[in-house]
Structure formats: C-alpha cells, structure tokens
Amino acid sequence: MSVQSLTTTKFCQGISDISDSYMGFIIDQWGVLHDGEKPYEGVVDCLKELKNRHKYIIILSNSGKRADVNKERLKKIGIGPSLYDAIVTSGELTWQGIKNQDEGYFEGIGTKCYLISRGGDRSIVAESGIEVVDDIQKADFLLISGADSPGQTVEDYHPILKEAARRRLKAICANPDSLGVMGADSIMGPGTLARRYQDFGGVVYYIGKPHQPIFAHCIKMLQEKEIYPGQTIVVGDTMAHDMLGGHLAHIDTCLVRGGIHAPAFKSISTPAEVNKALNILIAQYHGVRPKYMVHRLSWGKALPDRKHKKRAVSK
User: Using one digit for the tens of pLDDT, what is the confidence trace for 22-76?
Assistant: First the structure.
C-alpha cells in the first residue's frame, strides 16, 4: 500500500501486531534501539522474537561512524550481533565513497579534507587514502561526520563554515540528522552544521536517510535474500528521516513515538489526543503518514517462557 493512500495510522501495542506481515525489518538505531547509553526496555526481547521468526533485520543508522564501530558500540551496551543480520550506516557508505571516488557525489572530490567530527574522531577516514588537514586553506573538501554538542553550539562552527564556503569547498555530510538522542536529552546533530553551511552558500551532499542511495543499498541486500520492498517495513523515530525515507522508497513505515518526537506526545494519553499530536507532526513533514505507530520497540504481548519449554521437553 502506498503511504500516500493512507488516511489513518494504526496504533499498535507492539511489534508483535505487525510482525507476521513482513519478512524484512529496517530498524533505526538511536532513539529506537537505545539512547546512546543503554537499550530501551523491551528492545532485546523484541529483536530475539523477530529473529526466532526468521525475520531479516538491518539496522540502518545515520551514524557518521563506520559499521564495525557501531557493531562494537551495540555489543558493549547489550545488543549483540546475534540479534540482527546487518548494519548499514551513512558513515560506512561515506567511507566507501571517499575511498573509491568512482561514482556520484564522490567522483574526483579530492584527497585532502577538513574533518568536523565528534571528539576529533577520525575513524571515518581511516585507511581510505584521505588526508585530514588542520588548515582549511589546504582542503579539497569538507567532511562533516559529527558535532561536539552540547559543548559547542552551531555558532562556534561559523568561522570554519564561512571560510569553507568562501573557498567554495564541497561538503559531504555523513550524518544528516539535525538532532540526536543522548540519554534523556536531545543534542545537535551534524545535519544542523550542514544546513548552516548551505545558509552560507556552501554545497552539501548528504549521505544517509532520507536520501535514497542508502535505502537502495538496503533494498539490494534484502533482495539478495529474496525479500522485496512490499515485504519490508522501516521502523524509526524520526518523521524527517525514517518515515520520509521509507515513503520515498515505497516501503511501509512504523513510527516509534518514544524517540526524538517524544515531546510531541508528552502528557497525552487518550487515542484522540495521540491522533491529534500525530496529525500535527504529519502536517509539518509534507503530509507523510506512517502506516503504524508504537510507543517503543517492544514485542507488546506476553512472551513465551522458552526456558521452561526446554526443561519440559528434556524430562
């Protein structure tokens, strides 16, 4: 069903309500699986149930870090590799692009970059053949993969952004998110810096959701498993990236209301109030309506006691 043809969104108790309808699950990371510090309640059990039902799970993230870095971070907070099948990040696609420089935005972009990242992290260019320069005057392009928020504001980055724009450097944004989730707080994302660079007249190429190359990459992976867009759902917490990206890729979507848009649903409880808040969000984001909505990524009903069943069989 086309997202545009929907007139209502189905409010679900949990992912169990929709799991039988799909074989492929493209699931956002921050704000859906975890808050940057720990998994949300119910996430691990939900992923286990999906894997028990042989669903193919791709974690799709606008993280400016490479896939292996995200894999290790997930493992450290309790989401191990047995709970999903693949990780696709905008950072990974950016790394491949700047390394190969053989197509699209990356073709001939240059070998010297000025890097804006979180905490001075340079993993996105490691072993890519790209040299990071500290002098913007020596850079071939600008690479934005992170932001030191909340320690720095967007205004703190103005001098370097203005100078890069003056030199007409192309910018690659390896994480289009304007906001991120860190614990209970929202923090400035790299996408905010990229859009400010555009305000200064700079040209920015965005790698990640909602832009279609990253969704096309996921679709190709799923088709190799004989899973097609009509059998796939995007689960995420942002209208601007997850819901819009899924809509543009003609894939059904499920909004997790407890993530980045949680303030829009704060202090409301009745179905009518929830529907009103959702409609306000939809109006703000080009009329794109998610097919489903859940409070969080949880299974949503009593789970079977698998250990008990195993003991019973062994007797």
Answer: 999 999 999 999 998 999 999 999 999 999 999 999 999 988 889 999 999 999 9
Entry pTM: 0.82
pLDDT, tens digit, 9 for 90 and up, residues 258-290: 988 999 998 887 889 999 999 999 999 989 999
Q: How far apart are CA 192 and CA 282, in angstroms?
A: 21
Exposure of 202 in the CB half-sphere (CA atoms within 13 A)? 29
**How many CB atoms sit inside 10 A of residue 64's CB?**
32
Q: d(Cα 43, Cα 32) in Å, to the nearest integer?
A: 8
- Domains, the chain, ordered by start: 3-62+210-306 (3.40.50.1000), 93-206 (3.40.50.1000)
CB-CB contact of 227 with 56 (8 Å)? yes
Q: Give which of 279, 237, 284, 245 is closest to 261, Cα–Cα.
A: 237
**DSSP one-letter string for the chain:** --GGG-SS-EE-SSGGGTGGG-SEEEE--BTTTBSSSSBPTTHHHHHHHHHHTT-EEEEEE--SS-HHHHHHHHHHTT--GGG-SEEEEHHHHHHHHHHH--SGGGTT--SEEEEE-GGG--GGGTTTTPEE-S-GGG-SEEEE----TTTS-GGGGHHHHHHHHHTT-EEEES---SEEEETTEEEE-HHHHHHHHHHTT-EEEE-STTSHHHHHHHHHHHHTTT--GGGEEEEES-IIIIIHHHHHTT-EEEEETTSTTGGGGTT--SHHHHHHHHHHHHHHTTT---SEEESSSS--SPPP-HHHHHHHHH-
